[in-house]
Amino acid sequence: MKINLQAQNNYLHTKIQTSSPGQLTLMLYNGCIKFIKLAVQSMERHDMEGKHLNFVKAQNIIDELQATLNMEYELSMQLYSLYTYINEKLFEANVKLDVNAAEESIQLLTELRDTWAEALKLTSNGEKVKVQ
């Protein structure tokens, strides 16, 4: 089991080191959605420690997404506000055990992730995506 975990960690480390910034952003969206879903599952099992741990991981990812924004663009300012809203919803879900707030966060992040994935496809096909 220890060898399997080490192999997984090595794979993830290599994947992160060789990914483009766009792919890394996509991985952050996927990770955030995963942690929120795990937090909701923990709530359903009355596992308050697991709930809290996973919501905090999701919030840390949102903080990272905010920190990487280039605030010279209007879109970045709008994303910053959206990330702040999502972080507030995650805090609410964690403290008030509000599944609806968690589900709203998942929905918003899924839309962002899907849009980001489509933009990556367009840029990899030689088409340019202008962000301003």
Question: Which terms summarize this structure?
Answer:
Flagellar secretion chaperone FliS, cilium, chaperone, FliS_sf, 83% helix, globular, mainly alpha, Four Helix Bundle (Hemerythrin (Met), subunit A), 132 residues
Please explain how this structure is put together.
With 132 residues, the protein is mainly α. It has one domain: Four Helix Bundle (Hemerythrin (Met), subunit A) (Up-down Bundle). The chain is built from five helices and no strands. It has helices at 2-18, 21-44, 48-67, 74-96, 99-124. Helix 3 runs antiparallel to helix 4 and helix 4 packs antiparallel against helix 5. The protein is globular, with a radius of gyration of 16 Å. The termini are far apart. InterPro entries: FliS, FliS_sf. One of its GO terms (biological process) is bacterial-type flagellum-dependent cell motility. It is found in: Cytoplasm, Cytosol. It comes from Paenibacillus barengoltzii G22. Belongs to the FliS family.
Helices, strands, pairings?
Blueprint: H1 2-18, H2 21-44, H3 48-67, H4 74-96, H5 99-124
Concise account of the structure shown:
With 132 residues, the protein is mostly helical. It contains five helices and no strands. The chain has one domain (20-123): Flagellar protein FliS (Four Helix Bundle (Hemerythrin (Met), subunit A)), CATH 1.20.120.
